[in-house]
Design a protein that fits this description.
The protein has 266 residues and is of the alpha/beta class. It folds into two domains: 151 residues, 3-Layer(aba) Sandwich (Rossmann fold), CATH 3.40.50.720; 106 residues, 6-phosphogluconate dehydrogenase C-terminal like domain (6-phosphogluconate dehydrogenase C-terminal fold, Orthogonal Bundle), CATH 1.10.3660. 48% of the residues lie in helices and 13% in strands. Strands 2-1-3-4-5-6-7 form a seven-stranded mixed β-sheet, with helices on both faces. Strand 6, helix 4 and strand 7 form a beta-alpha-beta unit. Helix 5 crosses helix 8 and helix 8 crosses helix 9. It is elongated and about 65 Å long. The chain starts with a strand and ends with a helix.
């Protein structure tokens, strides 16, 4: 397939390298490049910061090939999809996208052809999007190593990402701000490493994502704070039975999730 990648940071660079690995005809656009790379591209991946995506697509709306699928990679979908509703799509189709893959570092130099191996790709197409176009996208993402493509509404995407991604980054940040972090060398193992790995997030990018998904993230944070408070109250009261119940509920929930992951998918 003929693929155009706009933006060559960590994610865009990884799409570029993974597409080359898969044997696609790939062209890249970086800052200030002209639209030549868009000519005849069947799929255009827009791998830019959230605030740059819609303006860039508007600026190039007349450059996309007939029948092209234009896919963004922003971690918040409701706002992007709503803004794209006002963009005239003359012969091409916008599909919201979000690859569930990343690293704690940024930049093209840290991009990997293998970044998407085993990951899932989320798509939030508008109602009535051509089924053949979606199948073309599924095939492309599978060729890059994605294990599955999940289709969801923008609202469902944002609710779930607030829980599975943004909350994790917020917790890692809060955890890493503890004064005992300075003394952690020699006292830490896998649990500490796993909890703090993503604390080195890009502050401006992630704060923009948090604000874009403010309502969903606030609801997720409120539930988390309530659960944390429940455990703190049990600990303060020396309520061993209460702590056991809380721990067992968490264990059971995680085991159910693991069991669901092992089930064959239709």
């Amino acid at each position: 397939m003929k693929i155009a990648i706009a933006g060559l940071g960590l994610i865009g660079g990884s799409f570029y390298k993974a597409s080359l690995r898969a044997g696609h005809d790939v062209r890249a656009m970086h800052h200030g490049d002209g639209p030549e790379a868009l000519k005849d591209a069947e799929i255009v991946m827009v791998c830019m910061p959230p605030d740059a995506i819609v303006p860039w697509i508007k600026a190039h709306a007349g450059d996309f090939a007939k029948g092209a699928a234009v896919v963004d990679i922003c971690g918040v979908k409701t706002r992007i999809v709503a803004e794209m509703a006002s963009v005239a799509q003359d012969g091409w189709t916008f599909v919201g996208g979000h690859p569930m893959a990343g690293r704690e570092v940024s930049g093209y130099e840290n991009s990997l052809a293998t970044l998407f191996d085993g990951a899932s790709m989320i798509l939030t197409p508008a109602d009535g999007t051509d089924a053949a176009l979606l199948e073309r996208l599924r095939g492309y993402f599978a060729s890059l190593g994605f294990a599955m493509t999940v289709v969801a509404t923008p609202e469902k995407h944002d609710e779930m990402i607030a829980f599975t991604s943004q909350l994790c980054h917020v917790i890692a940040t809060a955890y890493s701000r503890d004064p005992l972090v300075a003394d952690s060398v020699g006292f830490s193992a896998g649990s500490y490493a796993n909890m703090t790995r993503i604390a080195t997030q890009n502050a401006s990018d992630w704060s923009a994502l948090y604000l874009s998904d403010r309502d969903a993230l606030l609801a997720t944070l409120d539930r988390f704070v309530a659960r944390l408070g429940e455990f703190r109250d049990a600990l303060a009261a020396r309520d061993a039975d209460g702590m056991v119940r809380i721990i067992e509920e968490g264990t059971s929930a995680k085991l159910r999730e693991l069991s669901a992951e092992r089930r064959p998918r239709a």
